[in-house]
Design goal:
The structure is a homodimer. In chain A, about 50% of the residues lie in helices and about 20% in strands. In chain A, helix 4 crosses helix 5 and helix 8 packs across helix 9. Chain A contains 9 helices and 8 strands. In chain A, the strands form 2 sheets. A 4-stranded antiparallel beta sheet of chain A has the order 1-8-3-6. Chain A has a 4-stranded antiparallel beta sheet with strand order 2-7-4-5. Chain A is of the alpha+beta class. The relative contact order of chain A is 0.15. Chain A has 2 domains: about 140 residues, Jelly Rolls (Sandwich), CATH 2.60.120.10; about 45 residues. In chain A, a hairpin with a 5-residue loop joins strand 4 and strand 5. The first copy, chain A, is globular. At the A-B interface, helix 3 and helix 5 of A face helix 3 and helix 5 of B. The first copy, chain A, binds a DNA duplex through helix 9.
Amino acid sequence: MHPKLKLYFEERSQISEERLNTLAPYFKERTYRKNEYLLREGEVCKHNYFVVSGCMRLFSVNKEGVENTRYFAFEGKFGTCFTSLISRQPAFESIQCVEESTILSIHRDDFYQLVETEPAVNAIYRKILESAYITTQKRIYDFQGSDSLQRVKWLMAHQPTILSRLSNKIIASYLGITPYTLSRIKAKL
Amino acid sequence: MHPKLKLYFEERSQISEERLNTLAPYFKERTYRKNEYLLREGEVCKHNYFVVSGCMRLFSVNKEGVENTRYFAFEGKFGTCFTSLISRQPAFESIQCVEESTILSIHRDDFYQLVETEPAVNAIYRKILESAYITTQKRIYDFQGSDSLQRVKWLMAHQPTILSRLSNKIIASYLGITPYTLSRIKAKL
DNA sequence: ATTAAACGTTGCCCTATGTCAATGATCCGA
DNA sequence: TCGGATCATTGACATAGGGCAACGTTTAAT
């Protein structure tokens, strides 16, 4: 098994080396170029993805062509379009690499089969959902009660990798403001 | 078991009458008055709650005393402060009934014990998390890309019960705008 | 190495929303 | 039933952020 995925499982679950080795074959490794898509809007999502190196984002595009980014997955994180993965309906969001990335993917059938049959994977899936849900709850509060300056300051303090590794345009789309506004806010700091 | 909870479990899982009856004793029923708290900020959350009738909300209060409401649980829904329940840390949000409500509660130790030992509860917990996570994802996109008028219109179309059963003040706190702005927007419709 | 495309910054103007105050309506406690 | 508290609405004004244009910088393709 890839060392980073192995570490991920070991940190989150009491799982034996032997069991890990039975899981390894389900994960396929692939390298994506910057801006390459893993999923396009309208497709049915069929994989869960683990980022070994690089970064991918989940975003949607509205009728006016404006992008909104919901989530970044840096190294050591899982990410996928859960809405489509679970419902098997066409996705309303896309998955794209924002820099060259090495990604491990597991097919949804294999993944949910393991969730049902392998207690360690079941526990880890619950932790993924719990953690993701808690994170998005906090972002809801952030959108409700903070202005743009406060949000930028929060990123600087808590998620500096976003500011250092991603473009202004993409960061602005994550914060829900325009790149022009983000430029102005950065000038004020 | 309470008929509404029984219906909830039966709709979401193949579970026998017999198994349901073993689950029933874990749930305690209580009626709360309007504005009564189930959890106050700073307390550690120890229960998961199911709404039989009425409505409860989860909200936080910032330093200026402004309330932001993250989630409403109407009849037939589970709700709790997952961040505190999972981490056993003091909650940064509160749970309050917004009208007189009948609530079933289950202690977190019992709940997670059942998640570990009862496959139907494990599956249902996953569905709760999946559904909650997907819903909050959509709200993230909503906050990023819609203005206040669009959000009010969306509520009218998709969640009219919120508009008909709750006060303007509470609705505004859910939408992330002030009650004055909500009044103006309603006047424009 | 060069050129085109994309990104970032800044200026100016407009709109949406917040803030505060005043007034009317509704709810709740005695 | 009545009076106080709370909520809702509206007016006037202030501020944050959006929209658009222009220009400079950086990136990517050839």
